[in-house]
Please model this.
Amino acid sequence: MWGNGGIHVPTAIAVTSADLVLPAPDRHTPGAAVLHPPEQLDLEGALAETSALLERHGHLVALVPPWLPRATVQRLHTVRAILETDRIALLGIDLPPLGTALLVRQLRQLSVCDFSPGIIASAARLLSHYVYAGALLGSVAKLDRVRVPVGLGAHARSWSPSAQFAVLAHPTPHLAKLGAAGAQASAAVPAGPGFATQLTFARGQLTSDWVTAELAPAWQVQGVMENPLPAGSPGWWGTQKLVEFAAGIPDLSVLYQLVASVRREQCRWCGLELIGDRCGFCAAPLTAAPAAPPPPASTARSRP
Model:
């Protein structure tokens, strides 16, 4: 979008909590808009808040991970429906909280490039495949519900006061128990990305330097940054005793090439550009669903 005076105004990238906004990697990367949840802002205020963003930016891209409170998700869809606009993209990206924040930062970086809003929205699914998200946990007793397989032995060992587990939730589930006080930690390091990344971590109520001392060197990350723990992390991982981490591509030129290398299509429903197989704004698939096959000949009425 181009504002008054011919100044480019980036597509707004939105989150539902300020703790999902990581520091900008450079002075060119804009911040993220925070859409306040129902307990902080009534519906009238939410409509005004969103309308103002659309007026300034033209389009709004918001990540809606499945771990958000139900009332927050319902509010987002209600606002979009009342405003009757196709300029709001609500993207269901299934990443842990810190991984979500990292993806939001990447979209913020891309928002200043020459990509259309439709490309930026559909790029979220592409870039999520390159995010490595996990945690060091003091217990895995409630980890099953985040799609990381936990055996009975690991459940039993969770009751040990000194237990620590290295867990990777995305892109490939991995779980390994560390020895007491982090001994033999290197043997439990999950397979890392085969490309250059930067590591972000956040401490909960677990005292350990395993992420910086073992994981970061093993993954050969370009840099390490500590950030406050998102409020949703203990609930997602099932424990307060954790150190969450996420690794992703930090270089804007690499992110740009990744997105630019994918073939662009036009949404057959709303007309916006997209990459991949689904529009980020109207959620229409790239191709129409196949027509239903005719009923079997045996069901047709036979002639006398």
